[in-house]
Amino acid sequence: MENKTSQEHVHVLIIGSGPAGYTAAIYAARANLKPVLYQGIQPGGQLTITTEVENYPGYPEGIQGPEMMVDFEKQASRMGADIRYGMATAVDFSSQPYKVEIDEEKTITADAIIIATGASAKWLGLPSEQRLNGSGVSACAVCDGFFFRGKEAAIVGAGDTAAEEALYLSKICSNVHMLVRRHEMRASKVMQDRVLKTSNIMVYWNTETLEVTGENKVDGVRILNTQTKEEKTIPVSAFFVAIGHQPNSGIFASKLEMDDQGYIKTVPGSTRTSVEGVFACGDVQDKIYRQAVTAAGSGCMAALDAERYLSAKGH
Ligand code: NDP
Question: Which residue numbers delimit the FAD/NAD(P)-binding domain (predicted)?
Answer without folding.
Answer: 11-299
